[in-house]
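Backbone-to-sequence.
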C-alpha cells in the first residue's frame, strides 16, 4: 500500500541554508523506527506505509511526476535571514 502523504525536505548547507528540511525529515524517519544517514545533506528517500519521505538539496521539475501520485504533499524548508518570520502554512 502506498502512503497518501509525501513529505519533501530540501535545502543546501553549502548555500548558507540552516538544514531544517534535512533535520525534520531525518527526525520523522527516526520516529518511525527507520535508519537514516548521519551526514547532513545526504539524500533520503523512504517509502513507509504511513508517510513517504524525501530529502534532497533542492527541488527539481522531475519531482512533479512523483508528487502527482499523492493526495497530500508537505514541503519543508527554512531560510536564514535578518527578516524574522513565523512558520508559514501554504
Amino acid at each position: 500500500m502506498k502512503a497518501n502523504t509525501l513529505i519533501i525536505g530540501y535545502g543546501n548547507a553549502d548555500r548558507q541554508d540552516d538544514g531544517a528540511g534535512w533535520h525534520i525529515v531525518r527526525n520523522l524517519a527516526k520516529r518511525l523506527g527507520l535508519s537514516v544517514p548521519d551526514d547532513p545533506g545526504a539524500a533520503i528517500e523512504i517509502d513507509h506505509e504511513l508517510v513517504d519521505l524525501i530529502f534532497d538539496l533542492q527541488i527539481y521539475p522531475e519531482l512533479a511526476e512523483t508528487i502527482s501520485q499523492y493526495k497530500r504533499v508537505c514541503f519543508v524548508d527554512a531560510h536564514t535571514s535578518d527578516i524574522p518570520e513565523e512558520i508559514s502554512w501554504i
